[in-house]
Each structure stands twice: as structure tokens, then as C-alpha cells.
Design a protein that fits this description.
- Helix content is 34%, strand content 24%.
- It is an alpha/beta fold.
- It is globular, with a radius of gyration of 20 Å.
Length: 357
């Protein structure tokens, strides 16, 4: 397997990609370049990880023939143009969430992918860890049975100092609030385990901080399976918790409550009876531990690029998560239930920031 040469664009969350995603796999990846507009941060990250190439120019990264993967960790408002440009330059691309700020933008990216030499992988690192992967294995084996009901809670804390960063809290640059930059992780986990959504009723509000975007939201979902799901998220919790509790015919799953790593064990996996438990034991009784978050997602991406596995997260996955965001915003604006899928005739398709009444 060849070592893939990576350029990190945006050294904020990009540092976590280096530490969790690339350093654990020295036989698979080498970070050869970093790009950031903040020259002090460039120097700090470059010195910390002994990265020789440091640039403030995104074009320099795209022009570097030695770079195989462009890892985009910039503010959300520039994701769309940077992803399309990197694909056009023939690079493989990794992009932090949210992939972009509208379904129209996702569809533009999907068109660009059709003729691109490289492959795009959106980031949804919360899918990885022993707890969620055991649950996924049990569901895919048919043991869990029909889904009944679920609840998903993203109770985090973001105070004024968090929003002192100029691009945060603004529609133009952050593209949204708690739904887009925080709860999107947990909502992707829900879709990953319980499947697609059919109908949405939602409400959003700004109650915690003096910002443009929402910091509280709730929604009621009808899944395509017929299951009911409630979503709750706030940035005003005094204790940070991320929690999924999903009830199926034969099994109830509950995640751990760690705010930023809910995919890890311990998860509660509660079987309906001894026979179900025996079937679960047969599936996960000899479980081999899985590293959480970026460590496993990047490992799977390398396997895909080497022809040894599927693409771990697709643009279609990102689109489903952003379609849910779009539906909640539209429902909150109109006070009406929104039926999925959302097409180009939706008032929120081109830009969910557009007001709908």
C-alpha cells in the first residue's frame, strides 16, 4: 500500500486531523504541507509536526504535484469553492462538515465528482468507535428488528468567547448554528443507524448567545421505516452531553454520553430476551477493538484508495444530513411539516438561509 501525501488546509480542526487521523498511520499517510491564513499558526503547527511546506495560498497547494490528498478544514463558507477547485485539480479531497451550505451546493459538488480523477470523502468521524460499530453490525445482521422510536440529544455549551472568532455565529461564514456545526454529527449517527427520514417538523431559535444563527433547536421526525424520532439540541447546557437512545423490536441501544466521542464504548445494548442476546453474542462476542473518530475514518479512506474497501463516507451521506438541516429550517420558518426528499422546487434548496413564510 502506498503512502498518501496530504496537505492540510486550515490548521484549527486540521490539527486534530493530523494527531488523530494521520500520525497513527505512518505507513499510510504523510502530511507534507499545511495552508492557513494565520502565519503564526502555520509556524506553530509546522514546527510541532516538522512539516516543511507552509503556505498561505490555497492555489499553491493545488499546484503541488506531490500532494495526493487535500484535506479541507477551513470555515464552512468556503468549503464549496475549495472542494470543487481541489477536485478540478485532480486531487483526492477530504472535507470537514458541513460540506456546504445548501442542497444546491451539494449537487454542484456531485456533478464535479462525475468527471473528477480524485474522490471526495466528507468527514463524519463520530460514526467510528466500538459502540456505534457494534450497533451497526447488529442492525445490519437483522437482529435488532423493526425500529420503533429514538431520541437524539446534543447538549453542548458555547459561550461568547467561542463566538469571538470572527467567522463564527454568522450566516455568511458559518452557514448555520447548532444544527449545522454541532448536532450534525449526532444526526448523521441517527441516519447511519436508523435509515432515511420521511417527514420533519422542527423549530429553531437563538436563545443562548447574541449571534445571528440558531443555538437551540428541536424536531420531530417520521422515518421511512415508520419509526418516530425526536431531536433536541442546545449550546446552553451546563453539562455537555451527546446521547442517542434507539429502540428497536428486539434491542435498545444507548450511546455513551461523551460530548465529542459518543461512538466509543460503553454503549448499552439491551436485548429483548436470552435468544436475542445469544444472537448478539454470536455477532460481537469476539469483537476486535476499533479506534474512534478520525483514526478509523482515515484508515478506511486509505483502504478505499488502495482498492481494499468501500468509501467510508460519501457525498450522498453528507447530502442526507444536510437535507435534514434544510427540512428543519424550512419547517421552522413556515410552521408546517416538510416532506422529504427535498427537490429543487423547495424555497430552501438553493440557500437554507433564505427566509420562507
Amino acid at each position: 500500500m502506498s503512502i498518501k501525501r496530504v496537505a492540510i488546509v486550515g490548521c484549527g480542526i486540521g490539527r486534530s486531523h493530523i494527531v488523530e487521523g494521520y500520525l497513527p498511520h505512518p505507513d499510510k499517510f504523510k502530511v507534507v504541507a499545511i495552508c492557513d491564513l494565520n502565519e503564526e499558526r502555520l509556524r506553530e503547527i509546522g514546527d510541532e509536526f516538522d512539516i516543511a511546506k507552509r503556505t498561505t495560498s490555497f492555489a499553491d497547494v493545488l499546484d503541488d504535484a506531490s500532494v495526493d490528498i487535500v484535506d479541507i478544514c477551513t470555515p464552512p463558507g468556503v468549503h464549496l469553492e475549495q472542494v470543487v477547485a481541489a477536485l478540478a485539480a485532480g486531487k483526492h479531497v477530504i472535507c470537514e462538515k458541513p460540506l456546504t451550505g445548501s442542497l444546491s451546493g451539494v449537487d454542484t459538488i456531485m456533478e464535479a465528482e462525475k468527471t473528477a480523477k480524485g474522490t471526495l470523502m466528507p468527514i463524519f468521524q463520530y460514526r467510528y468507535g466500538d459502540g456505534i460499530e457494534k450497533a451497526k453490525r447488529i442492525i445490519e445482521a437483522g437482529i435488532a428488528g423493526r425500529p420503533y422510536l429514538g431520541s437524539v440529544e446534543t447538549f453542548w455549551r458555547r459561550m461568547p468567547e467561542y463566538y469571538s472568532v470572527p467567522w463564527r455565529g454568522k450566516w455568511a461564514t458559518e452557514l448555520g448554528g447548532v444544527l449545522v456545526t454541532h448536532a450534525l454529527h449526532l444526526h448523521d449517527m441517527l441516519l447511519h443507524l436508523m435509515g432515511p427520514v420521511s417527514k420533519v417538523f422542527g423549530r429553531v431559535a437563538t436563545r443562548v448567545n447574541d449571534i445571528e444563527v440558531e443555538d437551540c433547536a428541536s424536531a420531530s421526525l417520521l422515518m421511512q421505516s415508520g419509526a418516530f424520532v425526536s431531536l433536541s439540541c442546545t449550546l446552553g447546557s451546563q453539562e455537555e452531553i451527546s446521547r442517542l437512545r434507539l429502540h428497536f423490536e428486539n434491542v435498545t441501544f444507548e450511546s455513551n454520553h461523551e460530548p465529542y466521542s459518543p461512538g466509543k464504548d460503553p454503549w448499552k445494548i439491551i436485548a429483548a430476551n436470552d435468544d436475542v442476546q445469544a444472537r448478539i453474542n454470536a455477532i460481537i462476542g469476539h469483537w476486535r477493538p476499533v479506534a474512534p473518530r478520525f483514526t478509523t475514518q482515515m484508515e478506511h479512506f486509505h483502504a478505499f484508495l488502495s482498492g481494499n474497501g468501500p468509501l467510508p463516507v460519501t457525498t450522498g451521506d453528507a447530502r442526507r444530513a444536510l437535507e435534514l438541516v434544510t427540512a428543519i429550517y424550512q419547517s421552522s420558518d413556515t410552521g408546517s411539516e416538510v416532506i422529504l426528499p427535498i427537490g429543487s422546487d423547495s424555497p430552501k434548496y438553493a440557500d437554507w438561509r433564505a427566509r420562507t413564510k
